[in-house]
Design a protein that fits this description.
Elements: H1 2-44, H2 50-65, H3 87-107, H4 110-118, H5 120-154, H6 157-161
Helix pairs in contact: 1-2, 1-5, 2-3, 4-5
Amino acid sequence: MALVGLAWTYGARLDRLHRRIASARLSLDRHLVKRSAEAVRLAASGALAEDAAAGLHEAATDALAAAEYPLASDSLGGFARQGRGSGAESHVRLLRESRLSQVLRTTLTPEVRQQLVESPLTKTQLDLLDNATYRARVARTLHNQDVASVQRLRAKPIVRVLHLSGHAPMPEFVDLDDQ
């Protein structure tokens, strides 16, 4: 009887965690798209040097174009952009998002940030970009914590023997540069 209760508890927890991962992945996707859109707006504002604005615009539009690709190839969730995708597509998406992070770091130095803060319009744009970046970082952290929890739970012998995860794929971490 205790085994049945334990199996039911683990099965319910796995199901709940799989749903949380799907939700967290959608949230992360939304925040990454928002970050890219805000980066495009900042690049188009005319407040940055021409070459910096061009580089930022290119990286942000590349990330936006890759937003149609899933963040992971595990097909967990089955939602529109997070449905079945190839490993190559998710790799392209993660590379483009990471490249945008790198361009943001090199473009928005402390000196440039100080100049942007002096104007109310660009300060607002910078705040929106920073907010989207922060929210994406938090969403990725939460997602990856849930993935680690599922992987630990699925490694338990009772979960493996009784096949409590059903046909759900093993969730993947979303590993990108989001600093």
